[in-house]
Amino acid sequence: MPDFIPEKIAEVLTRHGVACVYIGGFAAALYGSSLLTTDVDVVPETSAENYARLSAALKELDARVRAEGIEPLPFSHDADSLAAARIWNLTTKYGDLDITVQPSGTQGYPDLHEGSRPVDLDGATIELAALADIIRSKEAAGRDKDRRALPLLRELLARQLRDR
Fold it and tell me: Which H or E run includes 12?
């Protein structure tokens, strides 16, 4: 299993010009969540041009398909093949990367982009989903790990709103 270096994943995606919103546990950590995460979750803009940039970035990241119980599988991809799936669970030379077109409780990139904000991450500017949108997605997903994260995320949001 590769070391988890999310800043390197972000750097490669940014350098390739991939338009995407960061969501999930890694995004929550950038808001101050202390919960550990082992992957980066992104929601891409769905144009053919962006999928072509994403494909180039995934090649540089040596991305492979991740599935439970088996070794990661190499895969050949281009803009069309990436667009054909709604979710990609991948592993890269810098750790796991999950790509989801429409996370639970959202309408995908346009919805999340509306409330997102740019954040500098070691020199790479990424588009970070609003904390309220991360909470909305975790509430809709309803998985145990999401339900366990919600009290802390709601407290972070309440603190964020108080500090405005």
Answer: helix 6-15
- Kindly give the interhelix angle for 144-162 and 131-141, rounded to the nearest 10 degrees: 160
Beta carbons within 8 Å of 64's beta carbon, 6+ residues apart: 72, 73, 74, 75, 90, 91, 92
Token digits for 97? Answer: 């990367």
- Residue 19 CA to residue 4 CA, distance in Å, equals 22
Going residue by residue through the chain, which has 164 residues, state the pLDDT in tens, using 9 for 90 and above: 679 999 999 999 999 999 999 999 999 999 999 998 999 999 999 999 999 999 999 999 999 999 989 999 998 999 999 999 999 999 999 999 999 999 999 999 999 999 999 999 999 999 999 999 999 999 999 999 999 999 999 999 999 999 98
Domains for the chain: give ranges and CATH numbers: 6-159 (3.30.460.40)
Alpha helices in 36-143 (DSSP H): 48-60, 79-83, 109-115, 131-141
Whole-number Å distance between alpha carbons of 149 and 41: 16
Q: Report yes or no: 121 and 127 within 8 Å, Cβ to Cβ.
A: no
